[in-house]
Structure formats: C-alpha cells, structure tokens
Amino acid sequence: MFEELSLKLESALKKITGQGRLTENNISDTLREIRRILLDADVNYLVAKDFIEKVKIKSLGKEVLSSISPGQLITKIIYDELVDLLGGGHREITINPTGITTIMIVGLQGSGKTTFCGKLALRLKNFKRKVLLVAADIYRPAAIQQLKILGGQIGVEVFSSDIKDAVKISENALSYAKEHNYDTIIFDTAGRLHVDEEMMNEVAEIKKIVNPTETLFVVDSMTGQDAVNSAKAFNEKVNFDGVVLTKLDGDARGGASISVRSVVGKPIKFISNGEKLENIDIFYPERLASRILGKGDIISLVEKAQENIDELEAKRLEEKLKKNKFDFEDFLKQIKMIKKMGSLSSLLGMIPGIGAQIKNANIDEKALVKVEAIINSMTKEERANPKILNGSRRKRIARGSGTTIQDVNRLIKQFSEMQKMVMTLNRKGFFNQQNKNFKFH
C-alpha cells in the first residue's frame, strides 16, 4: 500500500542530499514537498500540518556530522516523528487477570470485522486461551454463517441465537461462557454501510452489558478519510481502546492509516491482511515507519520465518545442501513454508530497497501454485532423481499438473541451475561458514 508514498518521499529527500548543513531554506523546500506528498497520500490535513511543523522545528539549526549527510539526518528526524505519529510503541490487548476477558469488535460493514474475529480467536487460542466467538451481528445475512465457518476452521465454538436482539444475545453469551468455563469471549458486533444513530445506540448498549476488557475498532485502510471520520464517530460514542488496520496489502494511498491514530488518540494494536486466518500481526509503529521510508522491515520478515520454519527441518535441509542432495521433495517443503509466511509481494516488500523496485513489477502470486502442482505430479522416484525425467515422463507430469511441457522443462532447468549453484557454494565452504555465523533462535 505504501510503495507510492515511499517512492515520492525518497525522491523528495534526495534533493537535500549533498548540502553542507540543514538551513531554513533547504528544509522549507523539502518539507513543502513532503507536505504535498502526505496530502496526496490522503493523510489528514491537520495531521500533515502538525507533522511537518514538528519536523521543521527539530531540523532547524541541526549541525550535520561529517559521517552523515543532511538527507540522512532529516530522514532520521522524519522517521522519529513518523514513529511518534503512529503511536510511539506497540500495544498489546489487555487480558483480564482474574476473570473472563471480553473483547468487543466494532466497525463499519465491509471493514473485515468478522474475519478479524476469527484471526484474533486463533491467535488467542494459540496462547492457550479457551475462546468463545459470539455472533452478535443480526443484520448482515451471511455474518452468522461466516463466523461459524471461521470457528469451524480453527476449532473455536461460536455462540449464536435465532432471536433478533443483539443485546440479549450478548447477555446470554456471557452466561453461557461462565457456565462452560471460557476465559475469553470475542463479540462480533453489527456494522452498517455508514454510521447511523440506531447502530451506535445498539453498540453502546452491548458495551454496557458486556463491560469489555478491550474494545477494538476495525478500520478498512482502503476507505480513505471516511475511515478516519467513522473512527471519530465510534470513539465519541463507544470510547474504544484500540484500532485494527485491515487491507494494508491493498493498493490504496494509505494516508488514512497514518492519520487515524493521531485523530482519535487511540493506539493501533493489530494489522490484519488477507483472508488467511494466520495473517494477523501486532502493530509496531517503528516497523511501518521504516517501510514507509523505503527501509524495509527485516525484523518482521525474520519473525515470520521463525514462526513458520521448523528448526529440525531447517537443520535437516542444511545437511542435505552440504551433501548436495537437495531434491524436488525438499523444494516442495520450502514452497509450502513460504506460502504460510504470506504473499510474495508482502514478503519482498519487507526487504530493504526491494519495495520500490517491485512497485511496477508483475509478481505472479500463482507461480508457486504452478510449481507445486508440477512437483505434486511427479512420482517419489522422480522427485528424488530428476535425471530420469525423460520426454514421456515430462508429458505425463504436464498433463497431471494442468501445465505445459514448456512449464515443466523450465522448472527442471531452473532446478538444475540451482543445484549447480549449491555445488559451487559447497566448494567455497559457504554452508560451513554460515553455520559458524548463524544461530537459529
């Protein structure tokens, strides 16, 4: 989402590179351009104005050390202010230490509330919480069924009722949770296409009954300033505790996401991207600020790898690489691990300097699916020994995977080239050296 903003900011900051020191003139020129970029990105006008003023005050008169350039210095100042604008530090959701933790999810229809409920339930379940999902959206026809499907996928019970009273349903769910020893309840409340008085009153009534430990407002990052306006309205009526940003993997300008925390004064707690129930991350302001400034997010990339890569499997793979016995079966396992980590574009965007390069690149997210289908159409013997893949075998594999012979030939050729590269690295002692320098945590 922030690729366009990153590119423009990088271009604006280049103009100050090479100056001997930061002066009022070169600072003003640069910040005028950055202010325009922020407004173009749909950042709230007052937020952008305040942000630029703070950067200007901190920049004026700063001496540039011989080891850094003015561009580097003002980039650091902008980074610090972005982190502050986005909340300063990450905030975890509150857990009730003595009783049931009740979490109320609110927001407009279409913001991704129900999907987020499923993601949060899975996350808390993985932390050994006994979670109950409550279907309190009685207006959207598919809401209850969607929540039941999500609950079934993650093994979490969903409380629902045929009565058309969301307040009463929430009250009954509380009693049910106490009777069945649940320690966490997530309430999926109703959304509307826009903020209205009836909706706000119902949400407020549910909050009185539920007395939530935590109330989270879900924001669709692609809806622009409407997201900020609805957040203000909800906060005035419900006084929520934190914000959840959804659809940050979209192609909208993203400025509203930057604005929302400053406008409502509540921390952003989670990022929810994609439809996979594992795609939920704690929000770290410093990491998003780094990505906005084109510096990538290596920490999140490493964390995703550590969450999805089995340590014993990693060591086994290392031994096979050392002996140059890496085959298609191993390749298939690596593809499955990569797919669990997220989309290719989102992973590449975390690597410093890559985000700008892939801005207009045509990244085929289905490429791994095609490769997986080809390998799945091979026999175990063929995966272990690609040299036996003659013409007739390749035709059979192409038919079985729904691909062309050219696709199969291309994969086999690429795999062969990769094996040659591994042999070269082995001769140079690459893997032995890496083993000395790297520890898997």
Low-pLDDT stretches: 351-361, 433-441
CATH classification class of the largest domain: Alpha Beta
- What is the CATH topology classification name of the largest domain? Rossmann fold
Instruction: Give the spatial strand order of the biggest sheet.
Output: 3-2-4-1-5-6-7-8
Give the helix level as a range of percent. 55-70%
Q: What is the global morphology? A: flat
N→C terminal distance: 31 Å
Task: Kindly provide the radius of gyration, computed on alpha-carbon positions and rounded to a whole number of angstroms.
Answer: 26 Å
Task: Describe, in plain words, how this protein is organized in 3D.
This protein is an alpha/beta fold and 441 residues long. It folds into 3 domains: 3-85, Four Helix Bundle (Hemerythrin (Met), subunit A) (Up-down Bundle); 101-284, Rossmann fold, CATH 3.40.50; 301-437, 434 Repressor (Amino-terminal Domain). It contains 21 helices and 8 strands. It has an 8-stranded mixed beta sheet, sandwiched between helices. The protein is flat, with a radius of gyration of 26 Å. It starts with a helix and ends with a helix.
